[in-house]
Amino acid sequence: MEKDKQITPEVVEAAKDIIAEAEAEGIINDRNDRDDRRYRQQPHHIGNHSCLKFFGCLIVMIVGVLACAVFLTIYITGPIVRTVKEIPTSFPKDLPIYQLNQAKVQVSSPESQTKIQQLSSALPGWILQILANYLYTDLKTQIMARNKSPENLPAEPTVSDLPPQVDKNGQTVTLSWANINKTKEELYSYYKEKLEQKGFTVKELVQNNEIDLSFFKNNISGAMSIMDSFAKDGNSAIKMTIDYLNKQ
To answer: Are strands 210-217 and 104-108 parallel, antiparallel or unpaired?
Structure first.
């Protein structure tokens, strides 16, 4: 059997020289350097995770604050728009209404108008827009009624498009029908004729899918949108808003 080779100091020195040369040429990397690089990279990943967590918490906090603000606004102000069984006794008597007994009636009183004006001065517009269905009976027809014209109405009306109620005693009533057994053209002809007979000035905007009317006389200003009903062909739906001076 061949004798074991002995490791002499010369062999050790030669091995060290080979390792040093390999490290210098990048063939062998020092282990400590690898550990240092791994350590330096670690805080970068931790930082990204912390940043995402921070923004996630911030979004949750903003949503929570917004929800609380909306809840407190509704809780403090109380009901603004009320759904009632009958029109108020102060409602104009000479205003012709087709199938009044089938209408859904919503009322915004003078006190409610005062609350809306206070909220408008205290809250930003985007919060008011979120609360639009709570604050206003029907935004589109309210804008038409106060502008006394169905024209120049934005495609997507916002709270900022609604002129303020001028008189502190002004009352707003909205009537709506989901399914009337008349076409929109028949209802348009009916209201235009009846309103003009009662001395109202009528302005209209006739479109393929919808007919808009505004009408006004003395302290009464109103508007309506007449459209095809989804319930039955040949039937119609109406949204109507009337602003008038409550003298009681």
So the answer is: unpaired
